[in-house]
Amino acid sequence: MTVKTFLLPDLGEGLTEAELVRWMVAAGDEVAVDQPIAEVETAKSLVEIPCPFEGVVSTLHGEAGQMMLVDEPFISVNTGGEEAAPASEPEMERAQSYREEELAGTQTPSSEAETEAESESDEDEGSGNVLIGYGTGSAQRKTSRRRKPRGVGAGAALAVQESSEAVRVINPLVRKLARENALDINSVKGSGPQGLILRSDVEAALARPASEQPASLPVVQEPMQAAQASASKPESAAVGGSKDLRTGLPVASSQVLSGVRKTIANAMSTSRREIPEATVWVDVDVTKLLKLRSKIKETEGQAPSVMALISRFAVAGLQRFPELNSRIDVEANGSLRHTLFEGVNLGFAAQTDRGLVVPNVRDAHKLNAQELSAEFARLASVAREGKAAVADLSGSTFTINNYGVFNVDGSAAIINYPEAAILGLGRIIEKPWVVNGQLKVRSICELTLSFDHRVCDGGTAAGFLRYVADAMTDPKRALATL
Q1: What does the alpha-carbon distance between residue 99 and residue 139 come to, in Å, rounded to a whole number?
Q2: Is 453 annotated as catalytic?
Q3: Domain check: are 307 and 401 in the same one?
Q4: Model pTM greater than 0.85?
Q5: pLDDT tens profile 425-446
Q6: Which of the 8 DSSP states describes residue 137?
Q7: Strand 134-135 and strand 3-7: pairing?
Q8: What is the CATH number of the domain that holds 458?
Q9: Do 415 and 271 lie in a common domain?
């Protein structure tokens, strides 16, 4: 019997973990090459994981709701065609790998030794299927390197001397989870080999009411560790999991942000922290635009969406004001690098059950309004289904946010970091409007532009916004020049 263990593949964009949403197979099931076996949720999207082996499922290395690490065992398959048996050997391999990393930091500097080992992946035929940078072909080889253990500081060393045994957890993700939730890692009982503290142990400790938490052991912390622990401790921690200390109100729910919600929160915070933004806005008469769209629909049977028409004008405007289709990066020496792009990858905000995501139409400058409308519909659909690929949700250079669908007039949108600007569309509503000295009822839309003031001044931003607004006001003339 041959049992092969499939490691969770690289999910792209530097993502190191994913939440296991559900298994699509069970132990004992027969699986084929490239058959979807599970759904995992990353910070970017919901991804189906295909199986690179054919055989009988031996072991599922995780449960629904568990955070899985890249390059850790995901599923074991008996490829010998016999009845599946417990995969003790792959499990031991996982424990050994985890053990080496977890115990790395308990070594003192004097006992450290740097070793390197290279291992080659099995040369059996794989499916050849590529999952976001991961190939299962036999030509692919994987090299692993044991890094030099990091020595502990003086304060941590003192804590080790005062304790009969060092805490067996050095995995940064596990420690980070405990630190962010103000949990003393010394109070956690490990369920892994030789008392190894796993992520599941920390999560179980966090789920217990405060009254049931074990007393923590005295540990001497280094100044930086103490500062981090103090900064991460919430001011309004719940008492016994029932009441909020700050307000005195019962706590309905409390959870650490993860997945898409965590990514959104981090992106918004980074944008506000890094980008000195300013906002300009203008009310636009779109009566002629709506009439033009109606005529196109009558003659051709279908018409591009209003957002697609406006997007076409925006893309043309970016070619005239390229500073807004750019990015600023901070280099290692602290200097700022301003990069302008020749093409446009047009992002658009889409509300889904998993949160706000920004799919993007690549090479939008090559598409007409009808093609843009079709791409918006397609990408919005796959995003709401949770099937958008990483490439669909990254790489945009300019974003349009149609918050008018929420029946609001305007908003100073937060720039989609690291882009330089975001264009916002408000709802279209009939208002009294002066036309050639006469008061008439017209269809009005508020247009806003939030921009990075480092890439341009207000004159450039106003010029772009005015160009788009004028095109919306007189669309026939604008389309004739595109």
Answers
A1: 29
A2: yes
A3: yes
A4: no
A5: 999 999 999 999 999 999 999 9
A6: S
A7: unpaired
A8: 3.30.559.10
A9: yes
